[in-house]
Design goal:
Keywords: Chaperone, Cytoplasm. It comes from Coccomyxa viridis. One of its GO terms (molecular function) is microtubule plus-end binding. Its main location: cytoplasm. There is one protein chain. The protein has about 280 residues and is α+β, with helices and mostly antiparallel strands. It has 3 domains: about 110 residues, Ubiquitin-like (UB roll), CATH 3.10.20.90; about 35 residues, no CATH class; about 80 residues, CAP Gly-rich-like domain (SH3 type barrels). It is about 20% helix and about 25% strand. A hairpin with a 4-residue loop joins strand 6 and strand 7. The chain is globular and about 70 Å long. The relative contact order is 0.12.
Length: about 280
């Protein structure tokens, strides 16, 4: 069978359709609503979704099941407003989501009715329940082709070697060593920047344009003076689970949390990045 070739006009039309409101783009159509999703067995508000008001409750459940691990048949959905007040229970699986009149920013709370669910008893969030493979320093150093041996060799060649310096060299750009960070003595350091942020707001973090949700705003014992912002990232690009030096400031899965200075965080309408959105350089 001969392959069908798309014309340039067809490709442009397809891109326009994919990026249009209500498809895979970031724009919001009139028939969609932005809802936070919470779960009876999971501590964190783990996602914000755009849902079509024409979807049936059953279809919404199946969509949610791919995000939380609870089968649609084990779900009871509750619609709650911005204050957490229960508005309605979505018991009729064939009714459209729009029948319940949800509003942007409200929450869909998933009640997992299965006592033996995978999400029960903290198995999806508490990493201490998972048996981990451990290796002694001696065992690691005895291995070949490890980062430790690579770093050791590089430092022999250049005592001032760093991973950042290596990346600059590979990219063909000049490396500028970071300045020595001055100690902060002001207890109210960056208080003005922190005052504009609220727990629960979506945000973007630089460098890297990493997106997530603000989970903490305030001062941190054991860290340099001033204000800090705790962020739960959408992806595992963080450094902790919301606790630092033995003190917990918020709760999220391990590797999803970080504490940053407020000037690194921008609060606003930063929905999760849509992996299916085409860029102008995409070809088919």
């Amino acid at each position: 069978m001969a392959a069908t070739m798309l014309s340039r006009q067809d490709i442009d039309a397809l891109k326009a359709y994919v990026s249009a409101p209500g498809n895979f783009g970031q724009n919001q159509a009139e028939s969609t609503v932005r809802l936070h999703v919470t779960h009876s067995n999971l501590k964190a508000e783990f996602i914000e979704l755009r849902l079509d008001l024409h979807m049936t409750v059953d279809a919404v459940k199946y969509k949610l099941s791919s995000h939380c691990g609870t089968p649609a048949t084990d779900m009871l959905l509750q619609l709650r407003n911005n204050n957490g007040t229960l508005i309605s229970i979505l018991t009729d699986s064939q009714r459209k989501l729009g029948f319940y009149s949800p509003q942007d920013g409200w929450a869909l709370h998933i009640v997992d009715t299965n006592p033996n669910s995978l999400s029960a008893r903290g198995w999806l969030e508490d990493t201490s329940k998972v048996q981990k493979y451990t290796m002694t320093d001696a065992e690691y150093r005895a291995r070949d082709n490890t980062y430790w041996k690579y770093k050791e060799q590089k430092l022999k060649e250049d005592p001032e070697w760093t991973a950042e310096k290596e990346l600059c060299m590979r990219r063909g750009i000049d490396y500028v060593a970071p300045k020595q960070r001055e100690a902060v003595e002001d207890e109210d350091f960056m208080s003005a920047e922190a005052a504009s942020m609220r727990v629960g707001e979506r945000c973007e973090v630089d460098p890297g344009s990493k997106r997530g949700v603000i989970r903490f705003v305030g001062k941190c014992d054991g860290l340099p003076k001033g204000h800090w912002v705790g962020v739960q990232f959408d992806e595992p690009v963080g450094k902790n689970d919301g606790s630092v030096k033995g003190k917990r400031y918020f709760t999220c899965p391990e590797g999803y949390g970080s504490l940053l200075r407020p000037d690194k965080v921008k609060a606003g309408d930063y929905p999760e990045v849509d992996e299916f959105k085409f860029s102008d350089e995409d070809e088919i």
